[in-house]
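Researcher: Let's try something more involved. This one mixes different molecule types, so please make sure each is placed in the same coordinate frame as the others.
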Amino acid sequence: MNLSRDEHLHGSPAPSRVELRDVRDEDLIVMVQEGHKKAFDELVARYKGRLFSFILRMVKDPTLAEELTQETLIRVYIHAAKYREIAKFSTWVFTIATNLVRNKMRQRSRRPRVISLNPAPEDDEMPVDPPDMGADPTEGIHREELAELINEATSRIPEKYRIPFLLREVDQLSYEEIQQVTGLKLGTVRSRINRARNRFRQLIKPMLKNETLLQELERIEARAAEEKNKDF
Amino acid sequence: MRCHKVKDYISQEMDEHLPPDVTVDLTEHLDSCAECREFRDDLLLGRRVMSATAPVLPDNFEWKLQLKLNQTLQRTAGETAYPWTETDQDKWRWVRNFGAAAAVGMAAVLALAVFIGPENGPGDAVQAVSREGSSGEVQTTSAGAGNSDRLPLFVDRSRRGGLYGSGMQRPVAAGGSSISRTGGLFDRGWSGHDLEDLRTIQRLRIQNGQLNRDLFRQQQTIRGMRAQLDTIDTNALDLEQE
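Model: All components are placed in one shared frame. Result:
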């Protein structure tokens, strides 16, 4: 008979993914420490999307973001034994991810940059332009294009504001969790999130006035709600 | 309440971090200030856009993750701190592996020792029989000082003006006389002639090298098997299997 490692270790069949759905993250990682592979699968399912969203909006490159998401999850698995329940699991995971992203961005910044002889206006100061809808009114904006614009806008927020902003908006971490991940003071976390929101608003302001884009946003939200209902 | 302060409070209100009394003041201000209302609507819309455009991972992400995890585990096999507590059996695995490698090594050393070592057992190992020229006189000398457990390999040519100085006590057949067969030195491969003995040494070195290579290969095999064992553990990481 082919027994899984879970069965070898614990003598009983491993819990299925369905059974693990209601288990807390902190309990799942303890199960991973004890050798339950399915518990790790469940953690991957819970965190892969959130991690990818956060990392992609930090590094802007989908391939690199995927790579760093994998690296984060691999580190979670390899170093599972080091996790202690003094912090929330999500805090621990996003600390790993944030450190990886910071290292990668530091490496990038060390690369020599090409300086243009014709200085253009600072990227940060320019709002992100949506596609010209007047050119072809029949052509609506698609989700991918909208996502690209948002990524572009996000990437223009300075890094020190972007990290707490994304941890809050994308990953819904509390201020206290963001404080633990970033090592900043609570007041600093609050003010940086506030500033990032203002900057983000300035950057996407032209988009927010675009009717077609707002319609697409509503369509996306409706589709997402439908899919959620199907799952239940 | 000033608009500048209100914009700061709006952000906190979105995160439900505003005290109730300040929330009441904020609501009152928003009712009367169109600019601040627009500001808040923009921030909320920004949040909606952010949430609606969450990037989607490629379908094969989990497959690639499993592959990379396996590769990482293989690479770090033997060095990895396992994420699960080791069982008692696992704890002693390294002893078994080390024991096997040590046994192979010891066997190689023993084989060499038997092949080139003294014939009269360990008690006699410190004694070397020396025959002087054609006198037929047999001396038994203790080689206890210095390299007492080694047999000198070369002919004592000091009295014959050879290359090797005095102190070489290897029993040799010199001056046409032969060493007693009971000594068995010829049986061990020594001819008593320099060139042949050097060849023997060369041959033994080659054999020794071969044994070392075999030992190394065995260790590699053991390492490979351990890595394979670790890989088998991760095969359960198939997220599609229930």
